[in-house]
Every structure is written in C-alpha cells, then in structure tokens.
C-alpha cells in the first residue's frame, strides 16, 4: 500500500517497513534497536545456558551472573521465596500505627518491599559536581493521575485487583483479609491521585527543582517524623537541604499520610509489594505480569529462559557486558572511534573559533562546554568493583539473593551523598543497544 506524503508523511516514509515488521508477542515494540537487542540477547542467553550446564567454562568474573541465572531457572529456589516474601509482608502487616511505621521505616526503605518513602539521590541540577538528596511523589497504581478521571480506567483497576487478589491468595491471608487489603489499597490510591503531578506537569522540568533547608523540610508535617527517617536513610548524616520535585505531593503530605488512614496505607504497601510473588513460580510470574502486559498491549510474557537471563542481567549487567565486549569490541576498535570523535570535536572547535556571528563571550562559553564533554564509547575501562563483590548464595532463596543485591546497591547509591560525582561512571553496559547524553554529568 502506497501512502501519500501529503496525506501522511510518517506513513509514506515507513509504510513498507510497517507492512513487513513483526512485533514479538513477548514485546510491546519492534524496530532497529529492538531487533538488534533481541539478537544480542539470544547470543548471550545461548552462551549463558552453556555456562550453566557446563558446556563452556564460566569466566571467573561471570560466576555470580551464571549462579543467579541458574537460581532463576530453579523451581525449588523460587518456591522457597514464598516463605521469605510472606515474612516480609507479615512485618508490614504487624505495624499498628504511624509510630510503628516510623520505627520500621528505614529497614523497609532498604528492603525490596514498597515503603512509600520517595527519597532518592541524584546529581544536583545547579552543581553537578555534587549529589543532592531528593524527595519525590509516590507512584500510583495506574500510569498517570489523569486516568482516574476516565471511567473506562475502572477496567484497568479491575485487572490490577484480580491480579493482586490471585497473588496474595498464595499466602496465608484469608479470603476476607485479601479482599480488605486490596480494597484499602484502592481507596488509598484514589485519594493519592489528587495529590501528585501528572506526567505532563512533570515534563516541565524547569518547574520541578524546589530546594528547602533541612530545618524547614516537612516542617508542617505531623503524622510521623519524616526528618528523622531522612537522617537514618543517610546513615546518620544530616543533609543541608532536600530538593523536592512534586510540589503538589509535598504540599499535601498531611492529606496523603493522614493520622487516621494508617491501615489503608499499610495495606497499600502490601498490595504494591504483591508482584514480588511472581518470583516464586512460572504460574505466579504469569499472573504478576498481567496488569503490565495489559498496559503495554503485550500478548504474552517472555519464556522462562529469557526471563531468567534478564533477572541476572538486571543485577549483573556490567559483568555480562564485559563478556560481550571481549567477544565483539576490541580496544583497537574503541580507540578508532574515539579518534573519530576527537577529529569531530576539533572541527567543531575550529568552526567556533572562526565564527563571525556569535559574540566573543558566547564563543568562549561554547568552547568551554565543548571541552567539558566526557565521551563514553563502547564499554567502560573497568567493571564497577561493587558488581564483583555481590555474591549469590545458592543455599538461599531467589528472593533473598535478589534482595541482598538490591539492598547493597541502594546503600551504595545513598552512601555517595556528600561525595563528589564521578563523571567517568557509566549508565549502560557494553551489550546495551542505545546511546545517551547526560547533561547533569
């Protein structure tokens, strides 16, 4: 079918590709980057399976990656996770009031369970040599607050409810307890939707930076001691300031964490953590992915082999990335590309220096910015040391291993507060098909 450029320019350019393109059932998209990513995944998955079954010797640095893959394929290791998840949710369920929550909050924050505490660390937008301590809004069940004004979104909430009921029913809760947990979670979530920014509002980045001195942080919030928890999250360090992004959420803390809605909040945490039960078996993984697949229009989930590979890649991506680059990207090839970039920068500099329509001050600042560029080609010069220190204990459940790694990783990130940022740090591993520009580093 030929599409007129006049009627549909996009369609006219892409109609031939669209007619031939096939979107895999386990993916919400297709395209050049996606297809290349799948090819690399299939290659690395094949090698990972060979490492796991002993057909190929496992490189020493990849052992924990392979062990996590094996655990993700092991039904016994997965089923053992159910007991650990039950114990974690019981700890939340046993909280009686906001004082209990305050005492338990830091432990919960560093766990894999929902905590309802949107603290984070990122480069300070006004001085990217430093890390800032931030406070964001809470995430809703639906993708955006605008969904809650659309009556048809009830269908999505019904799917989420059905999924969550099925998952929580795997635990020791009675049918009535499960129903109460889910109903309370939906009630809390509906109230929360009034007090967060929409995605459109969050896209106006220049409006999001709200620094406040720590002494003034949450000064009017009385439900529990948020400042005490913030200091505990930072391992005893008192921040000089907190930057909050979602001003609507920040200004309505007392309406979100209400003195009399603790049980609803607690049950919201439990319901938001229910997807962890998907780790415990293939059947539960299918159930736990129902809501997400509905949102993305994805007919099916990835097969177990691919899911297990992605679990390992999610925790040890820089390790499998190192393996990939050793197979495909030599130091000589990397140096060749870097030389190309140096030549392009030199040409750009020359054009700036010879420019006759910019002011001298503007040219000086442009060259200063050009000189500040840190380019990252192919792969990092070395594997981040912490990924070599994380261990997989084959005697523990899959959930316990994932939790231990996630906790260590989160503590690493928050431990960087007050330290200088590292501009050499990479955000993607060598096997990732993508490119990025980070203006804050």
Descriptive overview:
It is a single chain. The chain has 20 helices and four strands. By secondary structure, the protein is mainly α. The protein has a four-stranded mixed sheet with strand order 1-2-4-3, with no helix packed on it.
The gist of it:
It contains 20 helices and 4 strands.
SS-based structural class?
mainly alpha
| C-alpha Rg (nearest Å) | 25 Å
Task: Give helix and strand order, one letter per element, not per position.
Answer: HHHHHHEEHHHEHEHHHHHHHHHH
Major sheet: arrangement of strands = 1-2-4-3
Overall average pLDDT: 95
Shape: globular
Instruction: Please mark out the parts with pLDDT under 50 across 5 or more consecutive residues, or reply none.
Output: none
What proportion strand? Answer: 5-15%
List its traits.
about 450 residues; mainly alpha
Describe the protein's topology.
Elements: H1 9-20, H2 32-53, H3 63-73, H4 75-79, H5 81-93, H6 98-109, E1 119-124, E2 127-135, H7 154-168, H8 175-192, H9 199-202, E3 210-213, H10 226-233, E4 241-244, H11 247-251, H12 253-256, H13 262-273, H14 282-288, H15 290-296, H16 304-328, H17 331-353, H18 360-372, H19 385-389, H20 398-414
Parallel strand pairs: 2-4
Antiparallel strand pairs: 1-2, 3-4
Helix pairs in contact: 2-3, 2-16, 3-16, 6-10, 7-8, 7-15, 8-13, 17-18
């Amino acid at each position: 079918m030929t599409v007129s450029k006049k009627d549909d320019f996009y369609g006219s350019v892409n109609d031939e590709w669209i007619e031939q393109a096939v979107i895999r059932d386990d993916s919400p998209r297709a395209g050049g980057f996606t297809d290349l990513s799948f090819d690399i995944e299939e290659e690395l998955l094949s090698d990972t399976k060979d490492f796991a079954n002993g057909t190929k010797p496992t490189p020493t640095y990849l052992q924990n990656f392979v062990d996590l893959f094996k655990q993700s394929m092991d039904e016994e290791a997965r089923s053992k996770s159910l007991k650990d998840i039950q114990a974690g949710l019981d700890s939340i369920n046993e909280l009686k009031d906001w004082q209990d929550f305050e005492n338990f909050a830091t432990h919960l924050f560093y766990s894999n369970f929902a905590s309802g505490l949107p603290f984070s660390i990122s480069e300070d937008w006004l001085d990217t040599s430093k890390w800032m301590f931030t406070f964001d809004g809470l995430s809703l069940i639906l993708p955006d607050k605008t969904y809650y004004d659309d009556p048809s979104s009830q269908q999505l909430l019904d799917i989420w409810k059905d999924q969550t009921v099925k998952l929580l029913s795997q635990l020791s809760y009675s049918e009535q307890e499960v129903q109460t947990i889910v109903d309370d979670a939906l009630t809390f979530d509906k109230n929360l939707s009034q007090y967060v920014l929409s995605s459109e509002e969050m896209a106006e980045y220049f409006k999001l930076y709200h620094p406040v001195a720590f002494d003034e942080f949450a000064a009017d919030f009385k439900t529990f001691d948020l400042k005490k928890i913030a200091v505990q999250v930072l391992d005893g360090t008192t921040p000089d300031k907190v930057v909050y992004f979602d001003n609507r959420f920040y200004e309505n803390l007392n309406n979100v964490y209400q003195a009399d809605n603790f049980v609803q909040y607690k049950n919201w945490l439990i319901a938001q953590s229910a997807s962890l039960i998907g780790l415990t078996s293939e059947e539960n993984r299918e159930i736990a992915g129902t809501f997400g697949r509905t949102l993305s229009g994805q007919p099916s989930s990835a097969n177990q082999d691919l899911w297990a590979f992605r679990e390992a890649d999610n925790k040890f991506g820089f390790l499998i990335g190192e393996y990939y680059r050793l197979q495909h990207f030599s130091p000589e090839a990397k140096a060749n590309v870097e030389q190309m970039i140096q030549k392009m920068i030199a040409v750009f500099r020359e054009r700036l220096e010879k420019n006759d329509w910019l002011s001298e001050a503007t040219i000086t600042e442009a060259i200063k910015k050009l000189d500040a560029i840190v380019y990252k080609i192919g792969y990092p010069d070395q594997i981040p040391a912490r990924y070599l220190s994380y261990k997989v204990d084959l005697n523990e459940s899959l959930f316990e291993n994932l939790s231990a790694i996630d906790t260590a990783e989160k503590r690493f990130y928050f431990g960087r507060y007050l330290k200088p940022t590292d501009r050499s740090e990479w955000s993607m591993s060598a096997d990732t098909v993508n490119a990025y520009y980070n203006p804050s580093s």
